[in-house]
Amino acid sequence: MKLNHITKTFYPDSPKEVKALTDINLTFNKGEFTTLSGESGSGKTTLLNIIGGLDSATSGQIFLDDEEISAYSEKKMAKLRLQEIGFIFQAYNLIHVLTVRENIGFIMKLLKFEDKEIESRILELASILQIENILEKLPGEISGGQQQRVAVARAVASRPKLILADEPTANLDSKNSERLMDMLRTLNEKEHVTVIFASHDKYVLEQSKRIIVLDDGVVIEDR
Amino acid sequence: MYKIAKHLAWLSLWRRKSRSIMVILMIALSLSGLLAIQGLYDGMITHMINTTIRSDSGEISLYTKEYRLHKSLAYKLSPVSKIEEKLSKIKEIISHSVRLQQEGLIATAHKSLGANIKGISLEKERDFGNFDTFITQGDYSFGKHKKEALIGATLAKKLHLDIGSRVVFTAQDADAEINAISFRISGIFKTGNPALDEYTVFVSMEKISTFLNLKESATQIALRIQNTEQIKQVQKKLQTMLPELEILRWDELYPLLIQMQEMMQIFNLASYMIVFIVAALGIFGVMLVSVLERLREFSIMLAIGTPYKMVRNQILLEATFLGLIGFMVGALLGWIILLYMSTWGVDLRSFEAGLETFGLNAILIADIQYYYFVQAFFAVFFATLLSVIWPLRILKKIKAIQVIQGKML
Ligand SMILES: Nc1ncnc2c1ncn2[C@@H]1O[C@H](COP(=O)(O)OP(=O)(O)OP(=O)(O)O)[C@@H](O)[C@H]1O
Ligand SMILES: [Mg+2]
Question: What's the ipTM?
């Protein structure tokens, strides 16, 4: 994945104008485990949203496998998100009328995987993420940490090329955060999925192979 | 995809059980009430038309062209046997009644009133429209010597007449002579048709023919037709067969009945509007609230790539389930009520005085028509569609990511 001169301005040409991102040029390789870091308001979330096609850049291009996805229509982008990208948000990721099992299988179902395959994948992920015993519960009946693990399972279930997670540990205590990170690390190593975080959690940074530091919408460090 | 939407819609509906049940009941109750009222009103009209046909007009009546204007014996149907012979050739006519009528004065020792005297054959009228069932007091009989009469209930009341009372009827005969004849009251009838109940005395055809000095004459011949669909066609046939006569259908003789029927249709339409509005508002309220409170969830679904179409289908289906279940419960309830009211009837005795003027009996039998349910279905169906437009617009307008980050709403 390649970002070319990405700029994002909120309320352009108005007194409220905010330059959230300025001329971002980055390349993410397959299997990377990267964290976007930086102070609050530095543009992490904005960048992640643009990478995931949830928001559009004011200028610049994004390429995925040599295809310019920044030019996609909303409908085409939704399809791309469904097929290629897994999302983990800060909290309340799940569909509350569906059981944990159905939540994990939701995207695979939408992508018309076979029931048998969905079932075996659910069991596989449940065992890695240690949520086997809550599969029949509803999201409202499990803890926040468990909910986040279910969200991770759903995001990776259909083996997307890219996982995007915006502060997935923000609502978790340190122990649960570590657990979640370890599991994502395991999945990253086992399944070679590319992971991009936005986080300022210390443990997340420690676990990351690559850290990109943003400041006021500009990349100031990439290591 | 559709299956997932259906699954989600169904689960979501029962997640908010009490709210869903409330809307369903709202739709069901208003719908069943409407069905009951519609059946009752239709039953009322049908009943009025039926009694009018049975007691007077038949499906078709024959008069001479001038009779209805002048009401004079000069414009009588004669000879009756010739006309009857022609009628016998039309197989759709299952029964007919020959009547001879004259206006005059009915008097007791204390009081006199304008009235009609009508000669009939009791056997023929029984065959024609079960006239005997209209008798409320006394017997359906003209006595051994045909010197007794049947009198309308309202007229009897006005003259303070009872069974056995004696009355004198004065009228002009065919030669313009004024004659009087006396009768004893043998029976009192109530048809619901004011022209009969308030103004008419029935006597035997033989008696009145001698009294009026006529033979083989009538003022009206009423016909019963086998099937409703045949009426117009028989009318046409008669018009060519008997061009000198006036051949009128019941609805031409009693246009008021048709007007009432039309009024009821307008009334029914207004009732449907009410059900439509109740259903639309009920579903709209529930859908709006439930979309708003799940905006974050829908946004997450959209963000992870769920097609908008699926989310839209989910919401549409939720509303459809509400409407459909509401319709089914309401239709079932309405059907049970209608079934009860059409077999046992509704006892209106407490309102009788008021309803009598409309020609109604104390027990009203409701109609059940298949089309009531079809109409009701479409009313609820369109209400459902209408009610989700606004919630769907909201969903279409939101930016998923802003909702997820709490920047919207
Ligand atoms: N929807 C928006 N409308 C207007 N301005 C916005 C919007 N989203 C973000 N911004 C602005 O863009 C800048 C970058 O915000 P962003 O949310 O990307 O920061 P962040 O690095 O994720 O911060 P945090 O660590 O607090 O989550 C900020 O100045 C913010 O005020
Ligand atoms: Mg952020």
Answer: 0.91
